[in-house]
Amino acid sequence: MPLIDTVKQILDEVLYLHGAALQFTEETKLAGSIPQLDSMAIVSLIAALEEQLGVSFPEDELDVSLFETLGTLLAYIEKLSKNPA
Predict the structure, then answer these.
(1) How far apart, in whole angstroms, are the C-alpha atoms of residue 4 and residue 69?
(2) Which of 11, 12, 67, 70 sits most deeply, having the most CB atoms within 10 A of its CB?
(3) 1 near 71, Cβ under 8 Å?
């Protein structure tokens, strides 16, 4: 499954979006645009992404800008996948 589809599925499950996330594009705004994506949800989302994708989000690099759009999140996950800790 392409990374974008996997991430959309994880977003949908963690944020309880009932299929809405499956329609997201790389331009879809996340942080500040999805009410369910608060600070606690971001922690849950990071945990789910780490577990299901086998990546690790370094604490010193975490910033809300990573969650600006689906595209920014995908780009960061791809970077993590190429440079595992």
Answers:
(1) 12
(2) 11
(3) no
pLDDT at 5 > cutoff 70: yes
37 near 15, Cβ under 8 Å? yes
Pick from 53, 43, 62: nearest CA to 8: 53
CATH architecture of 3-82: Orthogonal Bundle (1.10)
Structural domain boundaries of the chain? Answer: 3-82
* Range list of H helices, 15-69: 39-53
CB hemisphere CA count around 49 (13 angstroms): 26
Which residue, 78, 65, 77, 81, is CA-closest to 29? 65
**Residue the block writes with tokens 């594009």:** 25
